[in-house]
Automatic annotation (TrEMBL):
PROSITE patterns: NITROGENASE_1_1. It comes from Acidithiobacillus sulfuriphilus. Keywords: Nitrogen fixation. This is Nitrogenase iron-molybdenum cofactor biosynthesis protein NifN. Pathway: Cofactor biosynthesis; Fe-Mo cofactor biosynthesis. GO terms for molecular function: nitrogenase activity. It comes from the Bacteria. GO terms for biological process: protein-containing complex assembly. The gene is nifN. The keyword Nucleotide-binding does not apply.
């Protein structure tokens, strides 16, 4: 059991945390033919746009209601309506996802009520789905914004039904999963003959492909028609604690059962996933996954020498922190320092003494005797100051290529991550030489050997 501590410094130094609206906007980017929009100033949107472009290295569709000082004070509901009409005229999306910001939340506009009256006054927009999520950036963090956005997608888009389609399964995906992770889950479901729907699906929209034609909206992802029929699935599999609210919302709306897997990095959680898919499909686990499991076990045997007793410092969103810390502990490492961004039921269950809700300065100050630092790219200076190896995980990663294609789930992803971390630890292991050998008699015995 860990003690959860909140840093109460006068200011944040080298932030670890990203805001709720950014998390919500990224979730909307996982929908097909969608235009995410931030209800706030142009600067808020520009910040998120730059962050996503640097991480994904792709063009990002992201719009704004362009709130100014007057609209912020008097109310900016008309800005929402004008923005929707302009977006529909210029981009013609099927979905518009709206995330609020601190500017508009402080005013307290009734956006839900306005959208109802606006849509009633514009019947020409009946085919346009509009999803609004309240994501004030003065509270909570990136993971919370993603979680709320997915829950509101379920509430607004999934159609209530009691029907069930054999072989259909839903995956609700946390913000810590990469494009490669989603593609691996898709392959797993297909290997059992299951038809899977993924929400959100960044593997379709932000996988780095070059499209045949230009589109002002997202280039792929979960389609609106597909989302509407999610209630017909036999089961929903939620990945990450952050997906519990969305899974519960889907269960309330359709009566559909769900299971929640807190992580998919490691041996046991993937055993659980494959067992679940095998029972759902009434099919045996394919031979290739049995082989991959054997390869992972061999890799664990090969690598545990280099993990044992190593002290690790991690700074990440709660679900990613839980995934990494739990897996590293299973490998024999010690999570000496854990820093995160927001509250989660998992934090108190962490296998470390303390979890700090703070920034990268808190991480650096507590990692002076650690063997490895893990966080996103903004932790590179801390690792350099400490003189220890650095593993980039999370978002943003802007000083390395291929962040979205790093695989960390499944037997294969766990094996690859094990090799990556193990090689970093191995490269930093100091080999013993004659002068470092512990001899009986200490320095006197060493001097006698030297004289002899």
């Amino acid at each position: 059991m860990a003690t959860v501590t909140v840093s109460h410094k006068a200011c944040t130094v080298n932030p670890l945390k990203m805001s709720q609206p950014i998390g919500g906007a990224l979730a909307f980017l996982g929908l097909a033919q969608c235009m995410p929009m931030l209800h706030g100033s142009q600067g808020c949107t520009a910040f998120g746009l730059v962050l996503f472009v640097r991480h994904f290295r792709e063009s990002i569709p992201l719009q704004t209601t362009a709130m100014n000082e007057v609209a912020t004070v008097l109310g900016g509901l008309d800005n929402i309506g004008n923005a929707i009409l302009n977006i529909q005229k210029r981009a013609n999306p099927r979905i518009i996802g709206i995330c609020s910001t601190g500017v508009t939340e402080t005013k307290g506009d009734d956006v839900d009520g306005y959208l109802k009256s606006f849509q009633a006054a514009h019947p020409e927009l009946d085919d346009l789905a509009v999803v609004y999520v309240s994501t004030p950036d003065f509270q909570d963090a990136f993971q919370d914004g993603w979680s709320k956005a997915v829950r509101n997608m379920v509430d607004a888009l999934v159609e209530p039904t009691a029907a069930r389609v054999a072989g259909q399964v839903n995956f609700l995906l946390g913000s810590h999963l990469t494009v490669a992770d989603i593609e691996e889950l898709r392959e797993m479901a297909a290997a059992f003959g299951l038809h899977a729907t993924f929400l959100p699906d960044l593997s379709g929209s932000l996988d780095g492909h070059i499209p045949d034609d230009f589109s002002p909206n997202t280039l792929g992802g979960a389609g609106l028609d597909e989302i509407r029929t999610m209630g017909e699935a036999e089961l929903t599999i939620a990945i990450g604690e952050q997906m519990r609210p969305a899974a519960e919302a889907l269960a309330r709306k359709t009566g559909q059962p769900y299971i929640l897997l807190e992580r998919l990095t490691g041996l046991e959680p993937n055993d659980q996933l494959l067992d679940c898919l095998a029972q759902l499909s009434d099919a045996p686990v394919p031979e290739k996954y049995r082989r991959q499991r054997s390869q992972l076990m061999d890799a664990m045997l090969d690598g545990h020498f280099y993990f044992g007793g190593k002290r690790i410092a991690i700074g990440a969103e709660p679900d990613l922190l839980w995934t990494l810390a739990t897996w590293l502990t299973e490998m024999g490492a010690v999570v000496a320092t854990a820093v995160t961004t927001t509250q989660s039921p998992l934090l108190e269950q962490m296998a470390c003494q303390e979890v700090v809700i703070g920034d990268l300065e808190d991480l650096e100050a507590r990692a002076t005797d650690c063997d490895l630092l893990i966080t996103h790219s903004h932790g590179r200076q801390a690792a350099e100051h400490l003189g220890i190896p650095f593993l980039r995980m999370g978002l943003p990663i802007f000083d390395r290529l291929g962040a979205t294609h790093r695989l960390t789930v499944g037997y294969r992803g766990t094996r690859d991550l094990l090799f990556e971390v193990g090689n970093l630890l191995m490269a930093n292991t100091h080999e013993h030489h004659p002068e470092s050998w512990p001899l009986p008699g200490g320095d006197h015995a060493r001097s006698q050997i030297a004289v002899g």
